[in-house]
Design a protein that fits this description.
With 417 residues, this protein is an alpha+beta fold. The chain folds into three domains: 2-207, P-loop containing nucleotide triphosphate hydrolases (Rossmann fold); 220-303, Elongation Factor Tu (Ef-tu), domain 3 (Beta Barrel); 309-415, Elongation Factor Tu (Ef-tu), domain 3 (Beta Barrel), CATH 2.40.30.10. It has seven helices and 25 strands. The strands form five sheets. Strands 7, 8, 9, 11, 12, 13, 15 and 16 form an eight-stranded antiparallel beta sheet that branches. Strands 2-3-1-4-5-6 form a six-stranded mixed beta sheet, with helices on both faces. The chain has a six-stranded antiparallel beta barrel with strand order 17-23-20-19-24-25.
Length: 417
C-alpha cells in the first residue's frame, strides 16, 4: 500500500494531539489496553471526556502541562493507505522540532481554533510548510462545536487564510471544518455541518494524490556503503548500497559516477537479496555496475545526460537549531549532504527572515535558536547537489558542530553556484 507521511501543526491548544488521537480512535487503530490507560489517566486528571491527546503526548512533562514538546510519531493504516503522523509542537520555542517533524511530510495539517481565527503561530507554521515545500496543505478549522458549527465563522477564516496563503508557495490547499473532540468530519461526516459538502479529513488523507510528488525524472543514487564480501561464493562481487534519492534506475541504464565522471552501465539491482528490474525513490537497494570503478561512500550515480551539480558554493535557507551557539559569518562547521561529509565555512549571511511578517532583515549579523535566514556556504569538497525545489533529498543538508557533534542547523539549497 501507498505510504502517506503527514505532519500536524498549529498554535498552542488548537487540538493537534486530540485530532490525531481522534483519527486513531475512530479508525480503530489503538489497542484496548491503550484505551484503558488513557481512560484511567483522564479520570485521574479530572477530565470530562476521554483525553485522546494522551495517545500522542508521551513525555511526562507533556502530560503534566497538557502541551506537545517533542515530535511524536504515530503509525496507522486503513484498507487504502498506510500513514505516519508527526505531531509537531505549537510553541514558538519548538520551531526547530516542527521543521524536523515536517521535513519528510507529503502533507501538513495546520489547525486553527475556530474561536481565535488565524494567529501568528498559524502563519509561522504555514510559512515553514511552504519553506519545506510540502506538496499538500490542509487547513483544519477545529473546535467548530464551540462556535455552534457556524458556516459564517468557517467562511471568514477560509477567506482570511486564502489571502495570507497567496503570499506563500502553496500548491494544494484544502479547508475542512471539524471538531476533534466530538469527532465531527474527522473520520465520519458531521450531521451538525450539513452545509459542508467536502470530504472528511480521513477520506481526504486516503484519496489525496501523492504519486506525482516525487521527482521521478532525475535519477540520483547516493552511495552509502560499498559491499565487498570477499567470500568464496562471491569472489569478485562489488555492490553499492544506498537509497534511491530520485528518478528510476533500471538494469542496463547508462550511468555516471560522480564526482569522478567515469561512465558504466547498471549490471544488476538487488533488494533484500532478490534481483529486481528497476528501483525508484525511496527504495533501499544494492546496485552493481558492469565496470570496476573507484566508487566510495558519498559518491553518487546519475544518468549520463542528467547529472547533479558538483559544487563547493551553495546558497541556502537555514533554520538554526542550537541553543548554545549562533550562526555567524566566518563560522566553520561540518556539513552532511546525502551520504557525504565535508567541512564548510559561512561566507555570508544574506538576511534573517521574520516569519511572522515575511520581512527580511539584511542588517542581521547572526542567527539564534529557531531563527531562519539565507546564507552562502563554501565547502572543502564538492557536494553533488540539486535545488531543494527539484529534489528534497539532494537539495537539503544538516550543519554539525565539530566540537560537540551536535546538529546545529538544517538547510534547503536555493542555488548551487
Amino acid at each position: 500500500m501507498e505510504l502517506l507521511r503527514l505532519a500536524t501543526a498549529g498554535s498552542v491548544d488548537d487540538g493537534k494531539s486530540t485530532l490525531i488521537g481522534r483519527l486513531l480512535y475512530d479508525s480503530k487503530s489503538i489497542f484496548e489496553d491503550q484505551l484503558e490507560s488513557i481512560e484511567e489517566t483522564s479520570a485521574a486528571r479530572g477530565d470530562e471526556h476521554v483525553n485522546l491527546a494522551l495517545l500522542t503526548d508521551g513525555l511526562r512533562a507533556e502530560r503534566e502541562q497538557g502541551i506537545t514538546i517533542d515530535v511524536a510519531h504515530r503509525y496507522f493504516a486503513t484498507p487504502k493507505r498506510k500513514f505516519i503522523i508527526a505531531d509537531t509542537p505549537g510553541h514558538i520555542q519548538y520551531t526547530r522540532n516542527m521543521v524536523t517533524g515536517a521535513s519528510t511530510a507529503n502533507l501538513a495539517i495546520i489547525l486553527i481554533d475556530a474561536r481565535k481565527g488565524i494567529l501568528e503561530q498559524s502563519k509561522r507554521h504555514s510559512f515553514i510548510a511552504s519553506l519545506l515545500q510540502i506538496p499538500h496543505l490542509v487547513l483544519a478549522v477545529n473546535k467548530m462545536d464551540l462556535v455552534d458549527y457556524s458556516q459564517e465563522v468557517f467562511d471568514k477564516i477560509r477567506k482570511d487564510y486564502t489571502a495570507f496563503a497567496s503570499k506563500l508557495d502553496i500548491g494544494d490547499l484544502t479547508f475542512i471544518p471539524l471538531s476533534a473532540l466530538k469527532g465531527d468530519n474527522v473520520v465520519d461526516r458531521s450531521a451538525n455541518m450539513s452545509w459542508y459538502e467536502g470530504s472528511t479529513l480521513l477520506h481526504h488523507l486516503e484519496d489525496v494524490h501523492i504519486a506525482s510528488d516525487r521527482n521521478m525524472v532525475d535519477a540520483r543514487f547516493p552511495v552509502q556503503y560499498v559491499i565487498r564480501p570477499q567470500s568464496e561464493k562471491l569472489p569478485d562481487y562489488r555492490g553499492y548500497a544506498g537509497t534511491v534519492a530520485g528518478g528510476i534506475l533500471r538494469k542496463g541504464d547508462d550511468v555516471v559516477a560522480l564526482p569522478s565522471g567515469f561512465a558504466s552501465k547498471v549490471a544488476k539491482i538487488e533488494q533484500a537479496g532478490q534481483e529486481i528490474d528497476e528501483a525508484c525513490a525511496p527504495m533501499a537497494v544494492t546496485v552493481s555496475l558492469e565496470d570496476e570503478l573507484d566508487i566510495s561512500r558519498g559518491d553518487m550515480l546519475c544518468r549520463a545526460n542528467n547529472q547533479a551539480t558538483p559544487t563547493q558554493d551553495i546558497e541556502a535557507m537555514v533554520c538554526w537549531m542550537s541553543e548554545a551557539s549562533q550562526l555567524q559569518e566566518g563560522a566553520k562547521l561540518a556539513i552532511k549532504h546525502t551520504t557525504r561529509w565535508a567541512r564548510t565555512i559561512v561566507k555570508d549571511l544574506r538576511y534573517k527572515l521574520d516569519i511572522n511578517t515575511l520581512s527580511r532583515d539584511e542588517s542581521a549579523t547572526s542567527l539564534t535558536l529557531n531563527e531562519i535566514g539565507r546564507i552562502k556556504l563554501r565547502t572543502t569538497q564538492p557536494l553533488l547537489a540539486d535545488k531543494y525545489s527539484r529534489n528534497h533529498i539532494t537539495g537539503s543538508f544538516i550543519l554539525v558542530d565539530e566540537n560537540t557533534n551536535v546538529t546545529v542547523g538544517a538547510g534547503m539549497i536555493i542555488n548551487t553556484k
